[in-house]
TrEMBL record:
GO terms for molecular function: nucleoside:sodium symporter activity. Keywords: Membrane, Transmembrane, Transmembrane helix. The chain crosses the membrane at residues 128-149, 223-247, 259-278. Residues 34-278 form the Concentrative nucleoside transporter C-terminal domain. It comes from Plakobranchus ocellatus. The keyword Transmembrane helix applies. This is Solute carrier family 28 member 3-like. InterPro entries: C_nuclsd_transpt, CNT_C_dom. GO terms for cellular component: plasma membrane.
Length: 285
């Protein structure tokens, strides 16, 4: 496998989600139909972007590689019991390596988040975290994807949560925001009452109810659903390194060299699908 193919493999991994992870997203409140669509269209987007970032320049002898792989397999596993034992050993190494790398990345991100929060408190800026910063930093990107101007910072914040925490946390908050929008619509339809913003929350005047985390437009909800539908969170870098190096230890240096590029490509693919969803000509909008 060439470096371009290896980068494409990792990029597609960052840009896609597995079935069980998608089930968790749906349980968190994300729209099922849009998640399924995002999972399908992200694959060709990731492949195209990976080839743009790292074009194929090597000549790979696939026949020779297949012969080597077959010979190694026959040498290692001469019978079913041997194959089962080898598989168990590989699985243990894969799980341990993945978990330790993920723990390391989570610890580093938590430390950085705590440092930012500490400096923010000393500077008089309460609640300054990664996702808040991302809400401002990613504002131009979310606007370019088609999010309404008034929702751009909130969409950027959700994308920041997805990148620096996990997509599960981002979808959990998105599900809450979707529920808030439905409550607000029912409130206006049934009572024609007034409401106003209180910081990031929405307060319903007539019912004396606070909708924590506020609301956003349905268009913004769809865009962020597509933009977050991937495995391209920072903790996934540790998972990817652990998994790939366990499967192929000889290419550890190449994996660590390409993982940053693949992570970037996976996020770009997700943002591209979000931009497609944000197009006014798309029928579901």
């Amino acid at each position: 496998m060439s470096q371009s193919e290896l980068a494409a493999l990792m990029t597609c991994g960052f840009a896609s989600v597995s079935g069980d992870v998608m089930a968790i997203f749906i349980a968190s409140g994300a729209p099922t139909n849009h998640l399924l669509t995002a999972a399908i269209i992200s694959a060709p987007a990731a492949l195209a972007i990976s080839k743009i970032l790292m074009p194929e320049t090597e000549q790979v002898d696939l026949v020779a590689q297949a012969s080597i792989a077959t010979a190694e397999f026959r040498e290692k596993s001469r019978n079913a019991l041997g194959a089962a034992a080898d598989g168990a050993l590989v699985a243990v190494a894969l799980v341990v390596s993945t978990m330790t790398n993920m723990l390391a990345f989570v610890s580093i991100l938590s430390l950085i988040d705590a440092i930012i929060l500490w400096f923010g408190n000393r500077a008089g800026v309460q609640g300054l975290t990664f996702d808040v910063i991302c809400g401002y930093v990613l504002f131009p990107l979310t606007f370019a994807m088609g999010a309404p101007y008034e929702d751009c910072s909130r969409v950027g914040s959700l994308i920041g949560i997805k990148m620096f925490a996990t997509p599960v946390v981002g979808y959990a908050r998105l599900g809450k925001i979707i529920d808030n929008r439905m409550i607000l619509e029912d409130y206006i339809r049934s009572t024609n009452g007034t409401w106003h913003w209180e910081g990031p929350d929405v307060f319903l005047d007539d019912s004396n109810t606070t909708l924590v985390d506020g609301v956003m437009s349905e268009r913004a909800e769809i865009i962020v659903t597509y933009a977050m539908c991937s495995f391209s969170a920072f903790i996934a870098i540790g998972i990817c390194i652990g998994a790939m190096t366990s499967i192929c230890p000889a290419r550890k240096n190449e994996v660590t060299k390409l993982v940053g590029l693949a992570f970037f490509g996976g996020n770009v693919a997700s943002f591209a699908t979000g931009a497609v969803a944000g197009d006014e000509k798309i029928y579901w909008l």
